Amino acid sequence: MSEQVIDQVGEYYDDIGELVELVGGNLHVGYWESDEDDTPFLAAMQRLTTEVGALLAPRKGERVLDIGCGVGEPAVRLAQRYAITITGITVSHWQVAESARRVIAAGLRGRVATRYADAGAQPFPDAVFDAALAFDSLPSAQDKAQWLREVHRVLRPGGRFVFTEYPRTAELTAAERDILTANTIHHPPATLDESIALAEAAGFRVTDAHDWSERVHRTYDEFFTALAEQTPALAEEYGAERVAMFTEGITTMFSLCRAKIGYHAIACEKPV
Ligand SMILES: C[S@@+](CC[C@H](N)C(=O)[O-])C[C@H]1O[C@@H](n2cnc3c(N)ncnc32)[C@H](O)[C@@H]1O
């Protein structure tokens, strides 16, 4: 990925910064089984981490790479659930610092570590990880093939990989594509087959693939409700101007996502 794009992504997440508190550190969508499922918003977000973790099925002692780890919330949750070590990478300096704070607070020093690194040019030797996760981060890749080649390189033969994608569920106008790009989302696939083909082209064997669009769809309305409820407190804490700018940008983006963006979860492995 070009340095300009990496800086843009980094600044985007640095700017969100502390406002990540609104989503409990979960920079991904929520997961509900059905319309009748009354799981509250934050629990639904944690639930998606559980579902993605189950797809990855980490085994005791494995070394796991979390590509685009956000503030480390999913990594902390997975390290609490599974006896593994996790290395997270992100291109947001703010997230690296916040992640370190959360790891220490969770008592996971030595089990989870986060560093600044580009997924498209990873600073790791070949075949050092047993499993890898790209949880709502591959959509940020301008060159998805390069990211996936890098994941393939750093996984050992037989290593497993789970990634999620934000497919388009309807045609996008040029203006809508611009909104996605401004929010660091590039080249949304059109179908589940397209997401699968991305992995296969990088040399992976796909073992499981889900279209969870219906299951995550409630995220956007739930987010708008939480934001409206918390706006006065957030404005007091972080300043009315900052919160208003955030609200404007995220409302444009999430309104588009609610109308035209779905969700894929793909599990695959690097052949032996
Ligand atoms: C939507 S957030 C998801 C965060 C986290 N996986 C979660 O579920 O909370 C996307 C993440 O991908 C990271 N990211 C985007 N482009 C990246 C790149 N080129 N290299 C490493 N991380 C990247 C961002 O910094 C951010 O942490």
TrEMBL record:
<dbReference type="InterPro" id="IPR029063">
    <property type="entry name" value="SAM-dependent_MTases_sf"/>
</dbReference>
<dbReference type="InterPro" id="IPR020803">
    <property type="entry name" value="MeTfrase_dom"/>
</dbReference>
<protein>
    <submittedName>
        <fullName>Methyltransferase type 11</fullName>
    </submittedName>
</protein>
<keyword id="KW-0808">Transferase</keyword>
<dbReference type="Pfam" id="PF08241">
    <property type="entry name" value="Methyltransf_11"/>
</dbReference>
<keyword id="KW-0949">S-adenosyl-L-methionine</keyword>
<dbReference type="InterPro" id="IPR013216">
    <property type="entry name" value="Methyltransf_11"/>
</dbReference>
<dbReference type="GO" id="GO:0032259">
    <property type="term" value="P:methylation"/>
</dbReference>
<dbReference type="InterPro" id="IPR050447">
    <property type="entry name" value="Erg6_SMT_methyltransf"/>
</dbReference>
<dbReference type="GO" id="GO:0008757">
    <property type="term" value="F:S-adenosylmethionine-dependent methyltransferase activity"/>
</dbReference>
<keyword id="KW-0489">Methyltransferase</keyword>
<feature type="domain" description="Polyketide synthase-like methyltransferase">
    <location>
        <begin position="19"/>
        <end position="266"/>
    </location>
</feature>
